[in-house]
Write a structure and sequence with these properties.
Blueprint (H helix, E strand, L loop, with lengths): L1 H18 L15 E10 L7 E3 L2 E5 L4 E6 L4 E7 L9 E3 L2 E5 L4 E5 L5 E6 L4 E8 L2 E6 L3 E6 L5 E6 L9 E3 L2 E5 L4 E5 L5 E6 L9 E3 L2 E5 L4 E6 L4 E7 L9 E3 L2 E6 L3 E6 L5 E6 L9 E3 L2 E5 L4 E6 L5 E6 L9 E3 L2 E8 L4 E9 L2 E6 L5 E2 L4 E8 L5 E8 L2 E9 L3 E4 L5 E10 L4 E11 L6
Parallel strand pairs: 34-40
Antiparallel strand pairs: 1-32, 2-3, 3-4, 4-5, 6-7, 7-8, 8-9, 10-11, 11-12, 12-13, 14-15, 15-16, 16-17, 18-19, 19-20, 20-21, 22-23, 23-24, 24-25, 26-27, 27-28, 28-29, 30-31, 31-32, 33-35, 35-38, 36-37, 36-39, 39-40
Length: about 450
Amino acid sequence: MKKFALLFLACLFISFCSLFKSKVPPYPSGVVFPLKKAAEIVYEGKVIDRIENLAGKLYFATTKGCVYCLDGLKHQILWRFEVSGPLESPLFFSEGNIYVYDIQNTLYSLDSNGNLLWEKKIEEKITSGVGKFRGKTFLGMEKGIVLALDAASGEEIWRFKAGGAIRTIPVFAGDEIIFGCDDHNLYFLSEKGTLTGQIKVEGKIQSTPLVEKNSLYFGADDHYFYRFNLAKRKRKWGLKTGGKISTPAVIHGKKIYFLSWSNVLYCLNKRNGSILWWSTIPSRSFYRLEISGEIIIVSSLSSLLLCFDVETGEKVGEYDAGQEVKSNPLWQAPYLMYNLYDDQTDKGRLVFLEKVIKVSLKSSLESPQSVSKEIIFTVSVVGFHKPEYEFYLREGEEERIGQERSEKKSWAWFPEKEGDFIVGVRVFDKKESREVEIPFVIKKKEKNI
C-alpha cells in the first residue's frame, strides 16, 4: 500500500510538472518577414477594389472591362472575360457564380470558367454588391430598390422598395435576405420579397453585415460598430469609434476586427464588444482585411502593407510597395499578393511576395591561412524557424562532417594539412533547407628566420 501511494504521488508530480512545461512554439504559418518580390502579372486597366481566392484560383475585375482568372502558384492568366465598356463593380462570388456590372448598369452572370450565363440591363443605377441565394440573384439600387432575379435566366422575379440607397452586399441567414441602407435601416426580407423585420441605427449602413450563428455584426456612419441578436433583432452592444465604418469586419476565434475612417484597426471581444487592442494605419482604407495564420494584414490608401499580431496588436512587419496599393492584400501560400496601377500606361500589376530565405557563412580569418591555426566559421540565417546546422569540409571529392547537426551555429576548424578546401554548412528547419559554401586555402606554416 505504501509503495502504491509513493507511485501515485510520483505520477501526480510528473503530470503536474508537464502542465507547466514550456511549449515549443509552432512553426510559423502565413506571412513571415522579411519579404521580397517573387513575381508579377501585368494586365489591362486598374483593379476594382479587390482580389478573390476561390479553390486556389485568383479572380478580379478591372476598369478596362475585363474579368481575370489566374493560377496564383504558376503566375499565369487562365482566362479573361471582356465586356464592351468599363466595369463599375468588383466581382462578386456567390454559390458558384461570378457577378459583375458595368457603368451602363448591365449585370453579367458568369460561371467559374468565365462563360457568360446571361446579361441583363438594369434601368436603375446599381449601388450594392450582388449575391445568389436559393436560385435567386439579389442586388440593390441607388433609389432603394432591392431586386430579385432568376439566377438561371436573369429575369426579374420581384422588387422591394427601401427608403434609401442600398450599398451593401446582400447576406443571408436562415430564410432571410439582409441589406443595409442609407436610410439608417438594416432590412430583413423573405425569399418572396416581403419585409420580415428591420433594425434602425443613427447612421447610414454601408458596410456589409457579418452573420455568425445567431449574431449580426455591422458598422455604420454614426461611428458605431454593433452586435445584434439575429432572431430577436435586439442590440447586444455597440462601440463608438473615431470614424464611420464602411468596410466589412472579419472574425478570428473569439475576436472581431474592423477598420474605421479614423485610420484605426480595432480588435474587439466579439461577445461583449470590449476593445482588446487597436492600432493606427497610415491612411483610410476601403479594402478587406486579410488574416494569415496569426497575423492580420492591412492595406490602405498608401504604399504600405502592415501586419499585426492577431492576439496582441503588435506590429510584426511591414512592406513598402513603393506606390499606393490598389487592392486588398491576399494570402495564398506561399505568396502575399496585392495590386498596383500605372496611370501612364493604364496597366495594373498583381505582385507576389514571398519570405526571404538567406544563409551566409563567415570565417574569423581570411583565406589563405597556415596549418594548425584555429579558424572559426559562423553562420547567420534569415527566414528559418528554430534552425539546426551541419558543418562539413570538402577536399576534392572527399567530404567529412566537421560538426554534426545541432543548434550550434559556429564551428572551430584546426587544419592539419595544406590544400584547397571547401567549408560548408547545411541549414535545416521543419520545412526549409539551404546550403552555402566558401573556398579556403591552407598553406604551409612559415618558418621564423
